[in-house]
Structure formats: structure tokens, C-alpha cells
Amino acid sequence: MTQLFRQVIVRRLATERLRTMVTAVGVAVGIAVVLAIRLTNASALRGFDAALDMTSGRTGLEILGVGGTLDERLIADLDWLRVYGHASPVIDADLVVRTSAFAQRATVDKGDEPTELLRVYGVDVLRDAPLRTYATADAARGTTDILRLLVEPGAIVVTRAFADRHGVTVGDRLVGLVDDRQVSLTVLGLLAADGPAALLDGHFALMDLAAAQDAFGRAGRIDRIDIRLRDGVDVAEAEAAVRARLPDGVNVQRPSRRSAQVERMLAAFHMNLTALSSIALLVGLFLVYNAVSVSVLARRHEIGTLRALGGTSRQVQALFLGEALVFGALGVAAGVPLGRALASAMGSLTSATVATLYVRSAAATPELSGWDVLLAAVIGLPLSLAAAWLPAREAARVPPTAVMRGADRVTARLRNGGVMPAVGVGLIVLAAGLARVPAVDGLPLAGYAAAAALVFGAALLTPPVLRGAARVGRTASFRLLRVGGWLAHANLGGHVSRVAVSVAALATSLAMTVAITVMVGSFRETVIEWVGQTLRADLYVGPATRASGARAVAISQTVEAVVRAHPDVLAVDAFRNLSVTYDDTPITLVAGDVDTLLSHGGLRVKAPVDGRAALQALAGRDVVAVSEPFAMRHDLRVGDRVTLPTPQGPRTFDVAAVFYDYSNDRGVVRMDIAVFTRHFGDRRPAGLAVYLREGADAVAVRDALLRDIEGTAGVFIHSNRALRQEVLRIFDSTFAVTYALQAIAVLVALLGIIGTLMTLVIERRREIAILRALGTSRRQLTTMIVGEAAMLGAIAQGMGLGVGLLLSLILVYTVLVQSFGWTIQWYVPWRALARMSAFVVIATLVAGLYPAWRAMRDVSVVPERDE
To answer: Which of 578, 517, 534 is closest to 553 using CA atoms?
Structure first.
């Protein structure tokens, strides 16, 4: 059997190197994309988990307050925690360092100056020692530098990695920004890359607790209390006992709970990427099916001869399944390293989206492991076998008499029957039903199944579509391309079974591309409309640290006073943002002045109909408006009630309105500033929405405010137009990875067209030679092959356009809504689709040039005659 496999399969694969390479590349790219998405998804979670593990150290439990901070006087009241273990208060904050501000500079100029974000821990180094390890970079100096933090005000210890990058030495001044304030700290020592100092590639620093409170404006406040449990103390029992004794507004949890929350937030995002990655794999499997099918058709006489010489049907089937295994093995061998390379390229795209919408995480793309190689083999080999099962079974059914009468009848009877088109129609009907099925645990599983059913159903309809195309357009083909066009049209009708799978693969890729284009275009137009109705302020003021990704930023009283004092400023909405937990999921609590919102601002209200009256109900009352994603995730409607955690304990609020919001999918709850202050205390605003007097020049006011603020704070001031452009920039970068995935799938499918045409050319060498002998010119034959490629591309594009539009309806009205809770208005970017259609036809036309050149090279030279 081994010798037979080598003679029948391996020798043919080696001879037809282009077909072998194209099919193997198709499988390899599919495997690579799946691996790349898995690695990038793992990278996002691994980065957060690594940071959590390093900073938590030996922490078993952590005590937190609602809104992120605790009154430090609580430490004395919690002296009973000693029963369970060692407790250490912590300040966990971000410092934006101006990296050109070393070398004795106490102040720096503003502008496009390079900055880096440092994660700063403020601790009592004596109390924190049982929980975390801080090793100095200079072992000879022992722990002296760490202990000096207790007596040196304004001191900070940075990592050796950070110091080496920027030429920092002990004694240098570190100039940075906290919120919109500039701070100057003295570098007291350097940390070795151990424990928390290995966090974020060395972007970590250590301060004394009191010094950190002063530097970060948290006098009398701490971020949390970490507890290292004593040996033998059960974590679950300790957690329950501590929770029972804590006052209102204070909670206890395990550090791992934060990781679980992040994983839940990222679940839908990661699943959507995984679903997109499967398209490239699906196209690769189409190519395997097509390659084995064409192989069966091309070698019908060999199969008949083998059967006539005593070969069994099982042996024949095993031979062609073995061919599929070769494609799968080659795909796995090439797909594993390619997947690692793609993961590195895609990492920046996905990490930017995760940081913008979910959580800041920094981790390098993980290296490939044995499990990744095993996953690639599990994906590539069985699926290649599955893709080749039907054509291999067809080969097994070829009778010995096929040598005399040809095997086309068997294959044609199977493929031309009415079963497959009927199944295709049934799958499309099934897709319509699945699109209406609700989400499962917040994931649109039925929506994905609907998309798959639609794609496979359309693929099964490819042969009748090709036969229909072969019946029309003959005259138009002749008029457009003369004899070459007429021959191309005739070949299309005569080789439906050979080209159907390649056309289906290309149509599938194009359908996904069309669907993604329509979905993203619809989303973009919806966001543009939402931004136009919601962002109405003339200027937006925020701390410069926000642009660097700092957490929990705030505007100082000095900046707010300067803004309010400008004569052209009519109104200012000083909005507050606070992250709280609702139903074990982080949400954003937003507070602003309702009167300013109603008189100057805008908020797109989904329900009730009279949105203005509903928003008026928020003023001064325990009434909230909730975002659409929040309402959908928690099944809330106008008139329902929500219970939110506050420092005084849980409080219940009436839901007066549901508003559209596309800033995040976790959920936003909006309340009046007076109500916020009553329940959560007086906090500094996260930003200012500034409304100017009629006729005021926004650019001039912006420049004047920056001059007044210069030297006192670091802020950004965006005009309305600039902020809208920034929103769209973030939006476009968020969907960049989807375009990359679809481009890969289309490229693989185009390679499949080349491979199919090459196979047809090889099979038709005798036919082409006869045409040449009958006087057909090289130009006419070239036109025939290239025209056939263009026809295949046009048919695939037509199918892709129709199926893609249907698929976009599933994505917009099922997948997006169930994944993120966003209602999107369906919008078709016809110009973009027209450009893409023209590109596909031209690309397939170009793809026919190489097979045409091969055909002309392989046939005998015959004297040219005029057309």
C-alpha cells in the first residue's frame, strides 16, 4: 500500500507542485489565523493575570471600597484582621513620566514630549514585607534603599530596566504628571526584576504610603488593604467571616476575582475574533476538497485501471484520504510558525482595542508551546480528512469499467442531482430561524450557527448558479472578447463540477468581506450620528495623563476655575466617572449636571418616547438613566429598579430612561451630580464639557485657556471637531484586525482560483493543442483562459455580494446586539462594495495570466494565423 501511495499520490503531488503548494498554503493560513487569534487572546488575559499575580504577591484576600478608595481611618477599626493574617494598606496609582525631564530639570515644556506610564505602589514597606518581595538591583546595598523610603519625603524607587532605558541614576529628579498636576520625585534606588518590579516590562515604581498619598492627592485615603492569610486558614471561610464583619460600602474578595471579571468582559470580543478566524480555515478546507475532487476527476482512468487490476474500493478511498493528509500535514508544518508570526503582527491591533474598550494589559505574545502544535495538528489533519471524505468516497465508487467509458458519469450524477441544492435551500431557511434565537450566557451562539448555515447553504447552491450562468451571456461574451470569450463561456458550462468548489471558496471569502464591510460601515455611520447628537460641547478638557492610559484621572480645582472664569464660557458640565460593580461585572457610573445637559448638551434616548421629560426626572432624585448595553445585559426596562453599591451600602434607583451609548459594552449608568455627591461623596471631575457663548471662536478660546493653564497643569483641550475625529480614529483602529483577517481569506481563495485553472489547463492540454492545430491563435487561447478566470471571479463576486448582504443582517441585528448590546442602523456602503467588486474581477483576471502562460508554453508550436 505504501508503494502504491507513493506511485499514485506522492508522485502526482510532486509533479503538480503549484496545486500542492496552493492547497497546502490554504490550510496553513487557516491554521495560522486560528493560532494567531488564540495566542493574541491568551496574550491579553495573560498580561492582566501576570500583572495581578506579580502585584498581589502572597495576597489571599483584598479589601476594597465602593468607588475605589477607602478612608485610612478604617485601618485602625480593622485591627481584628490580625486573626486571619498580615494586612497591608496599598496605594495603586499611575504616574505619567516625562522621559526627557531627567538631568536636574524641575520643569518641562509641554508638547509632543515622550512619556511613559509607571504603575506606582505606595506601601508601608515594613507591613508589606510579608506579602511582596522588593529586591534592590545592587545586592551589596541590601534593603537600605527600600527602608529609606520611610524617612525620605518625595522619594521613589524605580526598576533597573526603566533606569537603563532612560539613563536614570540614583539621585535624579523624576518629573511626571498626576492627573493634570506636575510632580517631582527623587530616585532613591533601583529594583531588580523580581516580584512586582517585573510588572509591565519594568514600568513599576515603589513609594512610601504617606508619600504616595501626597503625590497622588489621596490624603487620608487608600486604594485597598491586602491580606496574607496565615498558614492553615481556609480562604473561603476567611472571606465569608471577614465579609460579615465589614461595614457598609466595604467589600472583600480574592484577587483572582478581578481576573475572572476581565475574562467575562473579554469573552464576546474574543469569541467574535475566533469566529472570524474560522473563515480563513474554512476557505482552506474548501481548497482541500477542491484539490482532492479535481484529483479524482483527473485520474479517473488511473482509478479504473487500479480497480481492474484488483484494487479494492477501500484502498482507493484510503489513497485519496492520504492525499488530504499530505495537504493537512504540510499545512500544519507551515501554519505553526506562520501563526506565531501573525500573532506578533496582530498583537498591536487587538491589544489597542482591549486597552481602549476593556482593560489595560501589557504582555508579549506568548511563545508557541507543544499544546499549540498539537492544536494545529488536531485542527489541520482531521478537518482535511473531513473535507476530502466525499470526493474520496466518489473515487472509491468508480467501477473498473471506467477505463472504457469514463468516470464522469458517476461524478456528474452525484453532483448534478437535486439533493445538494435542496440541502442548500434548507440551510438558508435554517439560518433565518437561528438568527432569531436569543443569546446563551451573553454569547450569540445561535447567531454564529446562523452565519455558518447561510455560508454552507450558499456554497451548496454554487453548481446550479454556475450552470445558470453558463446558459446566459454567450452572445455578450462573444461581443466583448470575440472567439476567446465564446470559448471561455463554453468551458464554463463544461467544467462546472471542477470549478464549483473554488468559486464557492472565493464566494465565501467575499461574502464575509462584504458582510464585515457592511457591518463596520453601518456601525461607523451609527457612531457618527450618535457622536453628532451626543457630543455637542464646543470644547472638552481632560487631564493629559488620560492620553497615556492612566487610571482614575481627575481635573484639579485650579484648572476648573480657569475654564469657568473665561468670559466666552457660557456653561461647564463637570462630569464624574466612577467604576462600580453591578452583578459581579464592572460598569461605569457617570454623573453630570442635568440642567446643563438639557439646555446645552444632548443624549440620544431610546426609551421612553419623551426622552427630555425622562431626563428631567433625574434632577435631584434617586433616578438614573441606563445605557442600552446595560439594559440588555440585565434585562431592564423603563420603570424597573437597579441597586447600586455606595459607600453607605446598597441603594436602589428608579430607571427613568434607556439611552444609546457606544463608548463601551459593559454598561453605563447616568445620574445627576447632586445625587452622585449625596451617595458617593464630592469627587473631582474626570473632565469638563465646555459650552461657549454664541459667536465665540472655539480655537481662540482653546488657545487662551492653554496659555492661562500653562505652567500650572498638564491638560488636553479638544475642540468638538478634533474629539469627533479622535473617536473615529479609535473606531477604525478597533476594526483593523477584522479587515486583516478578511484580506487573508480572500487572498487564499484567489490562490485557489489559480490552482483550479492550472489543473484545468493541465487536463485540457490535448484540447488546447487541438484548438491550436485548428488555427486558434495564442491571443485567442490566452483570452479564453483569462476570460474564464474573470467569469469565475464575477460569478463569485455576485454570489459573495448577495450572500454577504444577507450575512450582514445577521451580524448587525443578531451578533452585535447579543454580543455587545448595541443597536446599529443597517447601512450599505455601495461605493466601497463597487470598488471591491471591480478589484475582485480584475484580481481573478490577473490570476488567469499564469495558467494562460503555462498553457501556451506546454502546447506544441503551431503557426499563427490572423483572427
So the answer is: 578
